[in-house]
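User: Here's a structure from my thesis project, written as structure tokens. My advisor, Dr. K., wants to see whether a designed sequence matches the one we expressed. Can you design one independently, without my sequence as a hint?
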């Protein structure tokens, strides 16, 4: 039963207000109460005592004491704590990227023990969803896509291994210092097992899975451009610095010289990342073979045997079809008059020849496809040292043929402080291992500060340093510098555990705060730099799509693997080794389950809009995969409301949700209570209940007038419920993390 495509006013209002409540991100400005020097980021971390506050009962942790001290200094008070259901929804989204289930809500609400919140947090940190959520945050910094560069749709066949590495690293709580070392120099690290060696090699994909212009004909220029990209990525992701600004001259604002840039660039200039292919001017990313366990080798051998048998069958069929075609082509009209496989006339013969020709072409395509994807030793994208590592010469104005003095490989002088910035690099090594050790060193003040600030930003929506990717002179100073150093030092002392720090943040009292707007506080701190409230914010594109799948009961768990459905011949081209262009993709066909897997496991395309099941990412501020982005833009525009209103994907999920709700309860009131708890994660209010009942009744009365619109299919939910569920999932509250 449908409503002739009519969207009621109820939906229109829900969608209209969905773009109005978002908080705009103001321009960077130092909070007036903070006294911090311009070079604070490069100074050694200072251990501060836990502040003594007037209201000693309010803090639940040392974090709260730092926050409350700053508030009391401005004669401000934090707002009241939010309700338990809002806290649960907030925590679930931040840690797993998914809303809580009805069962999880009920369990938490019945748990009145002091450890109730701790149990929720520990459950979320231990879930597979945690790694899937937080891996996506890091992929933004990588500029990750399932595609090399932006030219000719060249697919990155093994990129998914790096994504899966990240999911495992976060779920296993890989210490952050080891996380750094693996991604910069994993191929140079020792390993205790085959699995660790595989992880080490795969992690170096961090250095090459960006927007690499593989069609560049000037290979010298391509090489130094990639070095620049690697320098920029490493310095921004781990140090919060724009080191690439010093490629052509000393940094205009920060104390970073051109020699500093080339000291680090020399490390990556001594690293092999690309090779020239046989297709003309094209290049490709280095493939590293991964070691296998005996069991993995055995399983691959068995699969290969079955795969080859299938390929042989295709070739045999192709030979038979070709022979049949040749026989028909050589037959005369007189011979055709005698029935031959149903061919009784010249016209029938030509039609049969055309049919066989088409089948031969299809089999040829399938054979070329099968031969290209024949199973082999697993590979991953990564890097390795060049045969003869050496220091790099300054490239004047970035020109690889206008060379200046040689700069010894080393580190950044302003961060190194108190000693030479030159590294001690053994003969025959690039220096990546030494660079990784320097960045991951506990004495490097930038590394821990930047890492802690990134985690704080993801939890609270604003960093202690709001310019999360830039800790330079023109960036923002920290709102709570003592707290930042306290957390950074604790992060190091606790073994660089990201899970432990996240747990501490979400169990703090400040994280529990409500979002009430107090005029007195707004007058003093309108940007909430002192954290007297929790500012509502819209969930990101991945969380929105995953939530639609979750609440509709259609979310399909995925163990990882290739996101690109390259197994379908219609999705790939140029597989013939003789082709002048490298293999490419078209994404004409998706796997059946890809409509229902988490967004992190969908293909990421760099050169155009995100296709198919991932189209929602184009509308809700997905990170541009050609750049290194630690802080996404957040917009509130009419096209977002229009997408939620008109998207077939949203409509399908609303229909699935309606089926779920109608199957759960036999009467409207019970169904409405379940819908609100399932989708909005709270009880429905009496006013909302009455409004929803009136709405359902009005739609039913309207539909009754048109008996032809009635449906007898019990599997299809009633149209009024589809409309209501569509309104709920497109509402402002569903989009927000309060």
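Assistant: Designed independently from the structure alone:
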């Amino acid at each position: 039963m449908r409503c002739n495509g009519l969207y009621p006013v109820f939906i229109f209002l829900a969608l209209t207000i969905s773009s109005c409540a978002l908080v705009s991100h103001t321009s960077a400005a130092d909070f007036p109460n903070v006294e911090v020097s311009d070079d604070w980021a490069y100074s050694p971390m200072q251990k501060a005592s836990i502040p003594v506050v007037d209201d000693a009962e309010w803090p639940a942790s040392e974090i709260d004491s730092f926050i409350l001290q700053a508030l009391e200094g401005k004669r401000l008070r934090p707002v009241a704590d939010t309700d338990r259901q809002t806290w649960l929804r907030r925590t679930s989204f931040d840690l797993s990227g998914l809303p809580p289930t009805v069962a999880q809500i009920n369990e938490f609400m019945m748990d009145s023990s002091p450890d109730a919140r701790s149990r929720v947090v520990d459950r979320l940190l231990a879930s597979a969803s945690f790694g899937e959520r937080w891996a996506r945050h890091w992929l933004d910094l990588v500029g990750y896509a399932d595609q090399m560069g932006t030219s000719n749709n060249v697919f990155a066949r093994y990129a998914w291994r790096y994504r899966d590495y990240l999911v495992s690293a976060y779920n296993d709580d890989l210490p952050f210092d080891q996380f750094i070392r693996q991604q910069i120099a994993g191929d140079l690290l020792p390993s205790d097992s085959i699995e660790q060696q595989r992880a080490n090699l795969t992690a170096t994909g961090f250095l090459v899975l960006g927007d690499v212009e593989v069609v560049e004909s000037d290979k010298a220029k391509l090489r130094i451009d990639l070095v620049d990209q690697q320098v920029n990525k490493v310095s921004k992701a781990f140090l919060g610095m724009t080191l690439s600004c010093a490629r052509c001259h000393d940094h205009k604002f920060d104390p970073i010289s051109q020699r500093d840039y080339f000291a680090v660039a020399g490390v990556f200039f001594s690293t092999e990342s690309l090779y020239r292919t046989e297709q003309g001017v094209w290049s490709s990313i280095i493939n590293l073979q991964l070691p296998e366990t005996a069991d993995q080798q055995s399983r691959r051998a068995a699969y290969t045997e079955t795969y080859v048998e299938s390929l042989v069958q295709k070739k045999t069929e192709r030979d038979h079809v070709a022979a049949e075609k040749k026989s028909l082509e050589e037959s005369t009209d007189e011979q055709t008059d005698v029935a031959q496989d149903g061919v009784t006339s010249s016209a029938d013969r030509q039609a049969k020849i055309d049919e066989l020709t088409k089948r031969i072409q299809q089999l040829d395509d399938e054979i070329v496809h099968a031969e290209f994807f024949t199973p082999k030793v697993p590979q991953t994208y990564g890097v390795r040292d060049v045969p003869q590592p050496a220091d790099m010469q300054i490239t004047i104005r970035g020109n690889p043929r206008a060379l200046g003095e040689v700069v010894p490989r080393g580190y950044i002088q302003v961060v190194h402080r108190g000693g030479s910035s030159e590294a001690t690099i053994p003969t025959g090594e690039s220096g990546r291992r030494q660079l990784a050790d320097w960045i991951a060193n506990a004495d490097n003040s930038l590394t821990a500060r930047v890492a802690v600030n990134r985690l704080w930003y993801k939890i609270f929506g604003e960093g202690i340093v709001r310019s999360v990717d830039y800790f330079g002179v023109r960036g923002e100073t920290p709102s709570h510098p003592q707290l930042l150093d306290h957390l950074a030092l604790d992060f190091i002392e606790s073994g660089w555990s990201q899970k432990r720090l996240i747990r501490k943040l979400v169990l703090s009292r400040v994280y529990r705060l409500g979002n009430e707007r107090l005029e007195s506080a707004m007058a003093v701190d309108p940007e909430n730099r002192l954290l007297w409230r929790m500012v509502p914010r819209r969930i990101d594109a991945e969380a929105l799509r995953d939530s639609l799948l979750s609440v509709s009961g259609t979310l399909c768990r995925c163990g990882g693997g290739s996101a690109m459905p390259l197994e379908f011949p219609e999705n790939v081209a140029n597989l013939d080794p003789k082709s002048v262009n490298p293999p490419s993709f078209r994404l004409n066909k998706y796997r059946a389950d890809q409509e229902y897997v988490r967004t992190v496991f969908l293909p990421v395309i760099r050169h155009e809009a995100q296709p198919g099941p991932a189209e929602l990412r184009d509308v809700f501020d997905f990170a541009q995969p050609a750049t290194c982005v630690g802080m996404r833009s957040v917009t509130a525009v009419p096209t977002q409301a229009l997408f939620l209103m008109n998207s077939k994907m949203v409509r399908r999920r609303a229909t699935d949700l309606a089926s779920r709700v109608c199957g759960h309860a036999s009467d409207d009131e019970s169904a409405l209570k379940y819908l609100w708890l399932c989708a909005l994660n709270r009880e429905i209010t009496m006013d909302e209940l009455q409004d929803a009942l009136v709405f359902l009744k009005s739609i039913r009365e309207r539909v009754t007038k048109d008996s032809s619109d009635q449906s007898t299919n019990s599997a299809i939910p009633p149209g009024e419920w589809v409309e209501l569920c569509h309104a709920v999932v497109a509402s402002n509250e569903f989009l927000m993390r309060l």
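When you compare it with your expressed construct, this may help: Confidence is low (pLDDT under 50) at residues 1-33.
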